[in-house]
Amino acid sequence: MAVYILFAIAATCRAGVQIITKFDEAPVAYLLSALAAVIYIVATVGLARGDRAGRRTALVCCTVELVGVLGVGTLSLLDPALFPDDTVWSDFGGGYGYIPLVLPVLGLLWLRRTRPDA
Q: Which helix (H) or strand (E) holds 117?
């Protein structure tokens, strides 16, 4: 949970500064970082709630996050020109120590491990 909170803050701040100061340089990259920030925020809230709706929300967020980091990571390596500046998910989160790649997997494992019927 703490790592999700940290990434929600970091991605929100980074995307906000990039969108405000240099949006015209790499709008897709900065909007993807903003999307990642929103997903981290919503996942954090879902995980914190812990009820059925919160868990479902966190499950969707973690899944979208994993698909996003795998998709953007792959595209950023195959065609770097698509992302003139890094996103949170570029190079599979390499700029963040690959935590964006590991975090959704850990979130999904946590949700599975702590499910009420387990």
A: none
